[in-house]
Design brief:
5 helices
């Protein structure tokens, strides 16, 4: 089923997206702003989304895409930690205590390098 995108027909949305990609590759407004060293890709796209040049819907899509996590490793690791820490001896602890224990453990295990 063909669903309109941002109240545009499929062909209009496709044309606008192609135009935006060309502007992005050529670094033409609104994509002429450089990525700062202290800025993530998500923050850059979020800044672009604040510019209301008429291409807001495709920019919002870019913000959402840049917010995606490319893998679920962090979730898998946290799940394993929950299983490991929730032994029969500790099964009576409160949820708040349990979550804080996992947070503290992940903070100590974090290697910033």
């Amino acid at each position: 089923r063909k669903v309109p995108i941002a109240n545009l027909s499929i062909s209009e949305a496709n044309t606008r997206l192609k135009d935006l990609v060309k502007k992005y590759l050529k670094k033409v407004y609104p994509f002429d702003r450089e990525l700062r060293t202290d800025e993530s890709a998500y923050e850059w796209w979020s800044y672009m989304d604040k510019d209301r040049s008429g291409d807001a819907q495709p920019l919002r899509l870019a913000v959402r895409i840049s917010a995606l996590v490319p893998n679920s490793m962090a979730d898998e690791r946290t799940g394993s930690t929950f299983t490991w820490l929730n032994s029969p001896l500790r099964s009576r602890q409160q949820v708040k205590t349990f979550v804080r224990t996992v947070q503290i453990r992940s903070w100590y295990k974090h290697d910033p390098s």
